[in-house]
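Data deposition worksheet. Section B asks for the primary sequence of the deposited chain exactly as it was used as input, without tags or linkers unless they were present during the calculation. Section C holds the resulting structure in token form. Section D is free text for depositor observations; keep each observation to a single sentence. Incomplete worksheets are returned to the depositor.
Section A, Depositor: J.P.
Section B:
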Amino acid sequence: MEWPITKNGFDASMESMTAYMRHSFKVSRWNMTVQIRSVNHRFFELQLRCASHLTPLASELEKILRSSVKRGQLEVHLLMDPADGFQKSILDQALLQQYMDQAGRLAAQDARVVLNAADLLQLPGVISVESTLPAALDIQKCRKQFHQGINRLIRQRRKEGVQIGSLIRHRLSQMQKRVIAISQARHSSQRAQARSLKDEWQRMQASDAPAIAILEWLERQNIAEELDRLHLHIRAARSLAQAKTGEQGKELDFYCQEMLRETNTLASKSRDVRIRHLAVSIKTAIEEIKEQARNLV
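Section C:
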């Protein structure tokens, strides 16, 4: 499917939930990376993964994300390269003493058993490495970089939103033309419809059908109301696609449901093959809009 050509720039009225962002920066002598994958979701959902010592920074990042992103599922990774002063070694003296006691007993039994200090320090668990957040780390600078990265994410979401908004408006214009074509087809076939109505009327009168049944049958043949409502829904959806605020995705989904309902009713009422074909093409366009609206905030 080809995307309609749009003007340069971002349309603030549309924002997609689909985007990917990787932002790397350096604070003092430490290299950091924020990686965010954003996909569509009914609500806002955040999965933030980082090493335990980065929890204070992760909390800052989460605050900014929650205040900047309305909807979508975000998978976030916060990474920090090890450097001097970032990791420290911890000696488990109690475990070392146990090893020394065991080594002493073995040496008493066999003079060939010799363990020096280097050997003891390499035994499992004697020395562990603990990562800590450097005291010299500039949290304010990290926060500023987080904002820059998230702004890149928002720009990516809006960039795709521009394309989705253009596609939706294009589909709405196609639908409007088809609704007009249905109105014209309805008027051009009135003579044939009149003959059909006359034949049906005579048949129902001959069968002694109640007057109310005849009136109900006549009402079922009238698609004027469905056409009027389709015009209204298309106009409302187009205004929504050009709005500057709000969550267009959920509202567009609502209008798609309404337009599908009216189109199905229209198709079931009409006996004109042309109108039924046009109704099928309208339903196809609605489904395409509905699919794209699921990606919108």
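Section D:
The radius of gyration is 34 Å.
DSSP finds nine helices and six strands in the chain.
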